[in-house]
TrEMBL record:
Positions in coiled-coil regions: none
Highest taxon listed in the record's lineage: Eukaryota
Native source organism of the sequence: Hucho hucho
Molecular-function annotations in GO: rRNA (adenine-N6,N6-)-dimethyltransferase activity
InterPro entries listed in its UniProt record: Methyltranfer_dom (IPR025714), METTL25 (IPR052220), rRNA_Ade_Mease_Trfase_CS (IPR020596), SAM-dependent_MTases_sf (IPR029063)
Methyltransferase domain span: 112-180
Name of the protein in question: Methyltransferase like 25B
């Protein structure tokens, strides 16, 4: 069944969900069963989107009989994931109507960033009004775009905290330019440097769960945008070719340089439009190999012909991306709960345009007898 929204989960249910997530990831992440391969190898990209990734699709048509374990894998991945549809949107309405920032962009910021800043800033202002607060701390403020919007746009007193001195310098420069433009003598947001090591896991509960560890690769996988890939699959985008290109080149890299256990390949602009030989010539130097390395054309050709299977494999991994993200965010919710702070996960942005769309919102109450309910916008 569909998993409950975060605001309906009790503290005990949050901990139990975290336990279920770690068990699921530890048990099924590493291996793709042979019988699954036999079922999935002939799926077209649109079928992968409809049958695997789209949790809202109810009109599924199967060309063969699926293993029950594969059905269970899909159902479990969907059930353990926090809903990502913003309030007021129907599931299939996501991504259809573009936010205002995407329609006419006259700003130096990308529309995606404008969409996030406008939505998150508005939510922060509503919380400040609710709690009679006028001071905000932006941890990890980067170049300070959100701090500027909160300060200059919404009238809040903002302190930005950023660990990268280069970003702090850029933010100060932008602030100065904005002050000069507005001829506003009021103080602009200040920046402080932080070197916090907090990340994952944060909560004592998740740290104590068997199988809670996530590799860097797994945490990186949590950042992938399932909605964007569903669109690519249905459109049968040429960008899907990149999965096979990258897998083939990494195989070549490992064989030429065995000490490279997971040789990363840097992004190459419009690589899906290039012949593989050109892609390899550009990618080999990234791992310290000569661009003219002799390639076994028969072996490379055989690997490139496996493009369909590679796409299926990567999409199965993508099915786990929201599950991994849910575990990381749930760990933070449990951490706050351990500190006596109730929190909610709010799907604030349209995930089709801003994939990391879940916002963790918490109100720390001064005393237990003065607790108030927070009504979301």
């Amino acid at each position: 069944g569909r998993m409950m929204c975060s605001r309906t989960l009790s503290a005990e249910q949050q901990r139990e969900l975290a336990r279920n997530l770690t068990y699921f990831l530890e048990d099924l992440w590493a291996t793709l069963p042979t019988r699954w391969q036999q079922i999935l190898c002939d799926l077209s990209p649109p079928q992968i989107a409809d049958l695997l990734l789209d949790r809202l699709n109810v009109n599924r048509s199967y060309s063969c009989v699926w293993r029950l374990s594969l059905f269970a894998f899909r159902a479990t991945a969907h059930a353990l994931t926090f809903p990502r549809t913003p309030q007021g949107k129907q599931g299939h309405g996501v991504g259809i109507l573009k936010p205002e920032e995407f329609l006419e962009n006259k700003n130096q910021l990308k529309p995606k960033k404008q969409h996030e800043i406008r939505s998150l800033g508005t939510l922060v202002k509503q919380l400040c009004d609710l709690t009679d607060c006028s001071s905000v701390v932006d941890v990890g403020s980067g170049q300070g775009h959100l701090t500027c919007f909160l300060s200059f746009g919404l009238g809040l007193s903002v302190t930005g905290i950023e660990s990268d001195p280069t970003l702090v310098s850029m933010e100060s420069k932008y602030d100065g330019q904005l002050l000069w433009t507005l001829e506003n003598p009021s103080p602009f947001p200040t920046n402080e440097t932080s070197h916090s090591e907090f990340g994952y896991p944060m909560s004592s509960w998740v740290q104590g769960l068997l199988g809670h560890q996530l590799s860097y690769k797994a945490r990186e996988g949590a950042c992938h945008a399932i909605e964007d890939y569903v669109h690519r699959l249905r459109e049968e985008s040429g960008l899907l070719r990149m999965h096979c290109y990258r897998a083939t080149l990494e195989t070549v890299n490992r064989e030429a340089k065995p000490e490279l256990r997971r040789p990363g390949v840097q992004a190459i602009k419009k690589a899906h439009l290039l012949p593989f030989t050109v892609y390899a010539r550009l990618g080999l130097p990234c791992v310290g190999l000569p661009p003219d390395l002799l390639l076994d054309s028969c072996r490379v050709g055989a690997m490139l012909r496996q493009e369909g299977c590679v796409v299926v494999y990567f999409r199965l991994a993508l099915l786990l991306a929201p599950v991994l993200e849910t575990l990381v965010l749930l760990d933070r919710m449990v951490y706050l709960q351990e500190k006596g702070i109730t929190s909610q996960l709010v799907p604030l942005f349209d995930p089709a345009f801003s994939p990391r769309n879940l916002v963790l919102m918490a109100l720390k109450q001064p005393t237990r007898d003065k607790e108030t309910e927070c009504t979301l916008p």
